[in-house]
Amino acid sequence: MPHLTLEYTNNLPDYDAQAALRTLAQAMFESGLFGEADIKGRAHCLATYLVGTSDTATAFVHLQVALLSGRSAEQKQALGQHLLAALRTTLPPGHGAVQLTVDTRDMDRQSYAKAVLAAVS
Q1: Is 117 part of a structural domain of the chain?
Q2: What is the pTM of this model?
Q3: Which of 16, 30, 33, 96 yields a CA-CA distance of 20 to 30 A from 4?
């Protein structure tokens, strides 16, 4: 825990999602709220999207952060701002108009299940 889900539009052709995930995971770790091995990330490039009612020229990058419940509103707000700053650094040079967003959500701690399995040879 936590889970990072990064979505970005395909009109950012030089966007390096793998590098972005590393940057965001590092920012999560630096927050002091999570252990390094607990941070998980995935990225999805969106081929179908819309900004506003007709704009397909504006790009967007959205980060959803799912956290186990129990952190204060202040911790989540600070984390969101820290991740938004990190997200800015992941944009390729020369990009056009881009909207960046971060959504931090709680997951119910009582119903979350996790298992860590050793490698099987």
Answers
A1: no
A2: 0.89
A3: 96
